[in-house]
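note to self: the first set is below, dont mix up w the second
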Amino acid sequence: MVLFHDMIKKMKKATLISIAVLFLVLSGIGGYFVVSLRKQKTPASQTTTLPEATVKGDLVYKDESGFSFSYSKGIKVTDITPESDEYYSRLKLAKGNEFLTISVKDAKTSGYEDSSLVGAVSLAGMPAKQYAKGEKLATVAVDSGVVYLIEGLKDGGYWEDVQNTVALSFTLAEKTSSSGSAVDNAIYEEEEVIE
């Protein structure tokens, strides 16, 4: 009877050890899947940089209003700035029937504030955000009452890459101070008074 009692104790101990090991193994596997799923479900709104564009910026466009950007061969850039004091510049980058636009204008808002935020970037050193609205993707920066807006197709491919290439290469010419440092090279002559 004592032998049978010892055997039952050993079986209970072995069962408890087996259950504990099985619990540890299943916990490890469950933890791995939770971490894997969490990495896959990271929302795009937490993205802080643009993905590297696959479209090359072969050419540089310099706008007379003081900005420049790179774009690829095969894209035609057209100035479509309206006759309005609101706009500094409006450009259309087209290939075939598809295009994106770049607008630099006086405004307090871009019109995309109620859209889905999909990323945050830097546009010429200014904080900018990317919004999705329907089939459009917009990169927006607002600085000193000026809106810098790049709008194009949200196609998950070529036009998003074109927009990212433009945004990553977008630069502003140096701003001149209001004290007139832009005219430091001016030559001043004395006025001659005729009596």
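second set (the one i keep forgetting abt)
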Amino acid sequence: MADINARIVEHELKQFGYVVTAYMPNAFGHAMGGSLGATAKIITKVIAEGLAHGVFTSKDLREANLEIARRAQRDIVQGWRSRLPLKSPPYRRGSDPNKDRLSGKLGETLASESMVQGTTDRGISFLNTSVLAEEARHWYRVNYGAYGHNVAAIRRPKMYPVTVDGHTLFTLQDENQPAPNSFLPVRFSFQHNEFIPHQGPADVEGGGHRAALFTDIGFRSLGENFGPVYRKMLFTKFSRGGMTERFSAKNASVQAVIKAH
């Protein structure tokens, strides 16, 4: 499963900017092509059959992937604040909006439609890192943490299983690393909550930053929702007669199981 994970989550430049994309339908087929294929339950096999033989249209797959992406986005929007360190202060707001950091923009940006626009029939995207970097400049340090003398160990993203009908097909894990250590000017001060550098160069080591890892909420959501959403897509296809030809008399047991569900 680790081998699949190495290829499933990619950071790529699309027309919407740099997005994090999980190629889960391909990983599903890869998993079923291995030893799991012989022992998988019937629903898992039928979904794999539909994916392998083009039974599901591009529209079917994009709608399913978009539903999964939006659920992940919703879960992040609802839960990101709870992942911040206790008593975590807001990022300071400066006099120049072009140099602001978060300035209260993170939650608003995470809820933007741009977060899921990279989703296609092949990949699921719930994070647009280009938009985050533009609208909430310090999102990376907040999420992944940053090295520094005040942080003994930085939490790393967890691994989340993708399960269909009780089978763990593959795992998802965000592989981004913490931000490098930051440095402050030799002399600086805070005036009205604004950082004012007085003398450089920047050679005073910053203390670092703990990792909130609110993006893990999204990866966990992908793992939890992939199976139910694709199962629903399968039943919808069957109810409309879209898979009847593939499952004729010799596969009557498959139709019986689908109808029973």
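remember for set 2: The CA atoms of residues 175 and 258 lie 37 Å apart.
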